[in-house]
Design goal:
mainly beta, Jelly Rolls, 7-stranded antiparallel beta sheet, 1 helix, 8% helix, globular
């Protein structure tokens, strides 16, 4: 190829690259919360909650920076305290959040949440890692596995649901893989505590469509 033809070729390639459209990321497809930009003392306005007492607070040993999302008031026996991202329903979901449990271990994540009586959840309570469907306030177990966790230690909680196939686990280890037949096909995502447990949450990442 002559120098003249090479120059024309490079000009053509540059023009093609400059005119190509870069796909836009769908709204709400990826969210990450380290909670550092929120003022302590209240739940951010981008979140909604049900039961418990949710707020941003400073914490020694936080996963990133100094602030965490904390659930500080026991919801009571058999109850679930929920906090979720507003106005961002998702169908396919990948979620990871780091959690530090109190002396009573009972924490989890929620997704496909329509309201406080309809959602999917996974997490640890009563010494068992469980995946559950809550439909009209009634809880049905999808899968479970016994676990032994330590209070005061950070754990990474993972959720992945593509279509009806779901996989949930701790610290990058899959503990439950199952098919979701709950009929809850989309909704909001967030975190939760169970019963008399309190917990701190940090580095919440939600990716979905």
């Amino acid at each position: 190829m002559t120098a003249g033809r090479l120059a024309l070729f490079l000009v053509a390639v540059a023009a093609a690259c400059s005119s190509a459209k870069v796909p836009e990321e769908p709204r709400g497809s990826s969210r990450n919360y380290t909670f550092e930009r929120f003022a302590p003392g209240a739940l951010p306005s981008s979140f909604a909650s049900d039961a418990g007492a949710w707020r941003i607070q400073e914490a020694d040993g936080a996963r990133s920076g100094r602030k965490v999302l904390a659930q500080t008031q026991p919801a009571g026996a058999g109850a679930v305290a929920l906090a979720w991202v507003r106005d961002d329903p998702m169908r396919d979901v990948r979620l990871r959040v780091h959690v530090r449990a109190s002396a009573t271990i009972g924490f989890g994540a929620v997704w496909h949440l329509a309201d406080a009586r309809r959602y999917l959840a996974c997490g640890v309570h009563d010494g068992v890692f469980r995946v559950e469907a809550v439909v009209d306030g009634k809880v049905r177990e999808i899968g479970s596995r016994p676990v032994a966790l330590e209070a005061g230690r950070w754990y990474a909680l993972d959720v992945e649901q593509i279509g009806t196939r779901l996989r949930c686990g701790l610290d990058a280890t899959s503990l439950v893989e199952a098919v979701d037949d709950s009929g809850l096909s989309s909704g909001a995502a967030g975190v939760c505590t169970f019963g008399d447990a309190t917990a701190e949450f940090d580095d919440l990442t939600i990716i979905g469509a």
